[in-house]
Structures are given as structure tokens and as C-alpha cells.
Amino acid sequence: MKNKLLSLSSILLVFLILLMSSCTADAQENKPAKNIIFLIGDGMGLQQMFAAYTVNGGDLCIDKATHVGLQKTQSADKYITDSAASGTAMACGKKTYNGAIGVDTLGNDLESILKVAEQYGKSTGLVSTSGITHATPASFIANEKSRNNYEEIAADFLKTDIDLFIGGGLEHFNNRKDGRDLTAELQNNGYAVAMDIDEVMAHASGKLAGFTATGHNPRTTDGRNDMLKLSTQKALELLNTNEKGFFIMIEGSQIDWGGHANNEEYVITETLDFFEAVEEAIRFAEEDGETLVVVTADHETGGMVVKDGDFEKKKVKTKFTSRGHTGIMIPVYALGPGAELFTGIYENTEFKNKFMAVWGIPAAE
Ligand code: MG
Ligand code: ZN
Questions:
Q1: How much distance in Å is there from the Cα of 134 to the middle of ligand 1?
Q2: pLDDT tens digits for 176-212?
Q3: Residue 274: which CATH number?
Q4: What domain range is 328 assigned to?
Q5: What is the domain count for the chain?
Q6: Known active-site residue 128
Q7: Containing H/E element for 29?
Q8: Spatial separation of the C-alpha atoms in residues 353 and 113, rounded to whole Å
Q9: Per residue in 83-124, pLDDT tens?
Q10: Hey, how many other C-beta atoms are within 10 angstroms of the C-beta on 107?
Q11: What is the pTM of this model?
Q12: Which of 97, 169, 199, 364 has the lowest tally of Cβ within 10 angstroms?
């Protein structure tokens, strides 16, 4: 009798274990996001995106976004933001003045989502087609009262534990007024320093400082080629080794410059180049299953209008109405775990808290 009870209870136990393991399997299908890939097309409004979409034959990987929202870009004191104030708002969650890098309207340092990620043991990265010290990437890593403090911004990289960065801007690291050679300091801090995209791609593991240009990178049609796509591939491969996950910001910087120049071809080639990086991010996220991808811009540039187009002929007719930035709301495209948080209409200061919520990190205030 005792034996029978024992075997009955052991059958029950096995049944219970089976039930529990099937629950875990279910839970794994709805895993929270471990990694966040944040892609910013500088100056890329809906019109820029749709011009590229049209020239690409009415098809762009962004169709895979499951959730879409709109963000408001106004800075603390201006209807029209610059990339520093909007970058800081997205990275640090606070409205600030145009020109501010990671500081509030009083000049106090703000904490970026990249620094929060570091605190939680995640790996971090920045990739940009401008200088890596330029306003957008700088907003995620530096705290400076002016976006023009390039050498101070470069020095701020060494105050962090960032795992990799790839972009132009070498001159602000090794040709400085204070005589410091930050590339040597980076090496002392355990970084491999790569001096072109081939060296970046050859880097197999560990921290990486990748410099692809002395100043800004050239246009994609002017010799930069697929630097952004390749850098994105390499960055995701390197960051993916941390089981606690990662945060990376990847910027297509020069869509904005095409807008300022009122140069349709510049805008479209840079937007298509940016979407090659987006495609890499989406591919990674689809395979990984624990990665949130968010694609947006910091503001629109050029007041671009799609006047006419033809998907079959892959032709578009556009017009610019401004040489500067405009105040229009900017689309936010998301997919992966947590993507549902990015629907609706909200301020650009919401990104930091949304990213933290995706990771289950309570908001600071
Ligand atoms: Mg930028
Ligand atoms: Zn601009």
C-alpha cells in the first residue's frame, strides 16, 4: 500500500514537473526584450522615408514594423529643434535648449539611456555616419553645454564603459589642443582601435573604437559605400555576446545634410543606406526574438514634399520648402518585444522611460 502511494505521488510529481516546464516554454515565447536597437535617421520625416520607399519600388523593410507612433520634437525653448536638443531629449528624457549635449536647460548633466544600460550590466554601442562626436551620438554619451565642444565630447567617451563605437571624428581624439592622444588612452583602457572599415570588420571580440574617417564620413555615394550596414552587422555580432543584453544607437546622419542642401538625390541615397542598417537590425531581431527595434528621426529637415511618384519606374518628384529643420511630428516605427509601447502621440522625452519600461527598469522620476 505504502509503495503504491509512493509511486502515485511520484507520478503526480512527474506530471507537475511536466506542467511547469510547459508553462516555462510558453513564457519563453513572450520573452521581454533583452536588447534594444535604436535607429535614428537624422532629418528623416515621413516624406523622406516615402521618397526612398518609392524609389525602392514601393518596398522598404520598415513595412515589418508592427507598431507605429508619432513623436513631438520641439525643444525646451524653440519650436524648431536642433539635433543636440532632440538627441538629448530622446537619450536622456528631458527637454533642453538647442545645442545642449546631455545637459538640461541649467547646464546640469543628464543620464542617458546608454548609461542606464551600462549600470544594468548591458553592453552598449554607438554607430554613426557622421563624426562619432557629432550631436546625435554625442547626446547618448557626453555631457557638454555646447555641441561644438567636439574635443570635450571625445574625452567624455573615456569616462564611460561603452563597448564599441564606429564612426568618423578621429581628429577629435588624436589631434587635440590639449595634446592628449585619446586613441592611445582607449588602447590602454582595453579597446582595439580600428582605423578603417576593414579593420572594424576584422575585429573579432572585445571592446572596439572604430574610426572610419578623420572628420565626417563621406556620402555613401562618395566612397562611404556600405559602411553603415557593415558597421551595424559587426556591432550586433560583438554586442550579442553579453547575456544581459545590449543597447545600441545607430544613426544615418546625412539624410539631414541632404535636406539642408535641398538635394533630393542626397536625401534618398542616404535614406536607402540608412534602411540597409535597419534591415540588418530587423534580421537580427527576427532571429533573436528578444530584441526591440525602434526606428525614428530627431526632426525633419528641408520641409520635403513628395509631389509625385511612380513605383514601377522607381521615380519620385519632390520639393523642398526650407533650408532648415521643420517642426512636424516624426513617425516612430517599432517591432519586437515592447513595440506596443511606441504607439500613440508623445513627446521625444518619452523614449528613455519607454526603453527602461521595456527592460523592466523603474523610471527614476
Ligand atoms: Mg545627427
Ligand atoms: Zn540639421
A1: 6
A2: 999 999 999 999 999 999 999 999 999 999 999 999 9
A3: 3.40.720.10
A4: 35-359
A5: 1
A6: no
A7: helix 2-29
A8: 9
A9: 999 999 999 999 999 999 999 999 999 999 999 999 999 999
A10: 12
A11: 0.92
A12: 364
